[in-house]
Design goal:
Blueprint: E1 2-3, E2 11-12, H1 21-25, E3 37-40, H2 46-53, E4 62-65, E5 86-92, H3 102-117, E6 123-126, E7 130-133, E8 136-148, E9 151-161, H4 172-175, H5 181-185, H6 191-212, H7 215-223, E10 230-235, E11 240-248, E12 254-258, E13 263-266, E14 270-276
Parallel strand pairs: 3-4
Antiparallel strand pairs: 1-2, 4-5, 5-9, 6-7, 7-8, 8-9, 10-11, 10-14, 11-12, 12-13
Helix pairs in contact: 3-6, 3-7
Length: about 280
Amino acid sequence: MIESSTKEGYMLAGSPDVLTPAEIKAGLKTSLIGKNIHYFKETESTNIVAREMAGSVEEGAVVIAEAQTGGRGRLGRKWLSPEGGIWLSVVLKPRMQPLHAPRLTLLAGVAVAKTIRSYGLPAKIKWPNDVLINGKKVCGILTEIGAELDAIQYVVVGMGIDANVDMETFPGDIRDSSTSLKNELGNDINRVEFVQRLLLELEVLYLKFQKEGFSSIMEEWRIMSATIGEWVKITTQARSMYGEAIGVDSEGALILETSDGKLEKIVAGNCEHLRRAHGS
């Protein structure tokens, strides 16, 4: 028996919704990403596992878990990672300088947003590393690198997606600002199919990035940006700034026009959307 829904995605009724390598590889259309998949029922953090094995695995290795006990976001924030979500990390080994690593965070954001949009949901990307649906966070991305001098040894791109997560399980302080694919669609998604689509999107964009450069990826990011045109508060280690996010540069740094008309380039920091620019 096959259960169907009005949205894309079908699930065998009664089939186990598990993200095992065999399930994912059965319909995976990639040639690089996901060739090797390391599966955990539960782990502290897929990024930690991926970093530990990065030196000994081929590029494209994936670490995936049903749940994380110590999931982290940027700036060391705790990221709730219950069963039903999609918690995965990908090991990449691009030939580029460490200063260009933030590009891969933006690239991953495009991949996640495009995958979510394939289900008919209006996903947008909040600078630098969140994916939103109708203004609510559904995915966080954490990119970590291993580098020596001026050469990257590996990049671990971690993605945490609230897929089949019930909103009631979210802590009260983030419930109003977060959502899940299940909540937006009104039904569970086939997580295996979602992961297959996501890994393919990621591979297509990554190979395009290596062949053609970053500009075409950046253009896709701009089109799906939730941040450009917004009045924002930026908090860095040194200070806080307010202004309108007017764009991003070729490296993915945010361009902020402050209230006194100055232009600031933000390479890293926390971005909070305050309201629509110009009160619109």
